[in-house]
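USER:
Before I trust my own judgement here, I would like a peer's view. Write it directly below this note and I will take it from there.

ASSISTANT:
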Amino acid sequence: MLIYHTSDWHLGRMLYGRSLLEDQRYFLEHIFLPQVERERPAAVILAGDIYDRQVAGLEAIRLFDQTLERLMALNCKVLAIAGNHDGAGRIALLKSALRRSGVYLATELEDAFHPVELEQDGQRVQVFLLPYFDPPQAREFFEDPELRGEGPCMERAVEAMAPLFREGAVRILAAHCFAAGASACDSENVMVGGSGQVPPALFDPFDYAALGHLHGPQRAGEKGRYSGSPLKYSISEAGQEKCFLRLEIDGGVQARPVRYAPLRDVRRLSGTFDWLSREAQASGDYVELVLEDPAPVLLAAQRLRPNFPNLLSVVNNWTGADTAGSRAARLKGLGEEDIFASFFKEACGREPDEADRALFRRVLEEARSEG
């Protein structure tokens, strides 16, 4: 049996004010769905954060609707859980009706204790769909006011699943959580350290844990795997290679990544302004440019944007912490006019003349008189 594991689509996501819907549509319509059509997996597990906002935009909802329609037409079951970004109550609309059509949406804790059972070619699989939940929800559901922290709450949930395990079936858990020891990215809303983390050993009763929440593909203990987000949602992910996971079920679970080229990549380029403007290859990717010039470059973003139309930001190392620290050490003990002269020379490439100094003295005096 073949199952796909994906997560954190974040439909409707913005990157530095730019909508990524076109990039997300490309991933779904030109990469993911064609792969489903070629291989015909029994199911797709979507481990949370379908949308980027609890009140999703119309275009994001329409894109998910179209994707579900294609998957249903391919007779591929969809096993999706609500993540912390999703409006669980909203995506629960028509949940019961969709279940009869092979779309299983887990939006509340109760859903985790009604596993989806798949059977194909002599293989039997139980998939437990555990949506994102917080400790207050767990305390109310389990009627235990002493439950505190995501770890103990997850442990209680897993203990409640154990009596439902079928002998001889491969057991898969789908969950949206932060496994202790995993690596986070700038694009995630996670609590690093403390009660927000879940011990990976909690996944051990399962043959595989299909995890969502963290955007970098990675392992979480012996049984847990994050598929990661299908696209890069921050500059901190520039070095990642995105994928979804292909689960081969044959008495156990073997996970293999399916990698691909997105419509536009997210990259960080470094170099001098002259090199970036004249020699670097023009690109439509989303890029952050790091200038290595020893002096500031005026209007750098505006002048570089013709070569990089999807420019996200320009960072000038001249203003970096090391440079600032060495400059501060060099200027320590100097008077105000000498500090001005040093800055003027770095910014303008020449020593200030008497007119420049006189203007500085006048502005300084005005500032002092105004308190």
Q: What stands out?
A: The chain has eleven helices and 19 strands. The two ends are 76 Å apart (CA to CA). Residues 266-319 form one domain.
